[in-house]
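I'd like us to work through together how a protein chain folds, taking it slowly. To get us started, please write out a protein record for me. Label the sequence line and the structure token line clearly, so we can match residues to local backbone shapes. Once you have written the record down, we can walk along the chain together.
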Amino acid sequence: MLASLIIKTIIWLIILGALLFVPAGTLAWPQAWIFLTELGVTGALITRWLYVHDPALLAQRLASPLQRDQAAWDRVFMICVMLLFCAWLVIIGLDAVRFQVTHVPVWAQAIGAVAILVSQYIFWLVFRANSFAAPVVKIQKDRGHSIVTTGPYAHVRHPMYAGAIFFMLGTPLLLGSWFGLALGGVMIIAFGYRAVMEERTLLAQFPEYADYAARVRYRLIPLIW
């Protein structure tokens, strides 16, 4: 698993770099290097924690985003999101560097960098509380899947997606693209749709989920939705 993890991490960072630097047409993009460094360092720290404390969840996180026992609608969703994510980074590179259509002030870029770190911290809180936080929507019967109500799940029903909001907003701010920020909003809406669909799956499999949803009223953002 460790060798696979190292290889996949390197490949993932190379792909991200290519999606950013090729459209930008230059490697002289400090914000992109900060972005990759943040993801590389926080990803390594979170992965090390999972390797020590929850290798079963780590194996789930390393699995393919398209799986046999995954809900059919979620396979379609993941394909669409992966394509949109790639297009998102390409657009950011074109907007922020190659054509310089928009300009994001330095203070907003700094907020974006902090937002990315916040997103990674929330992801770690989710992993610490929920050993069933697979990247796909499926019921893990072989692992004794159960409803998690502690940690960040005591505040919102889908804290992983809540963390993703910080990432989707922070990334285009750091990289300097208002067009990317607008497209990030589209992806946030998409994950809101996924949260609703995921809840239908959980309600069908876990009768107690209805009581949990009644106690924790908000899906992603406390006092809003």
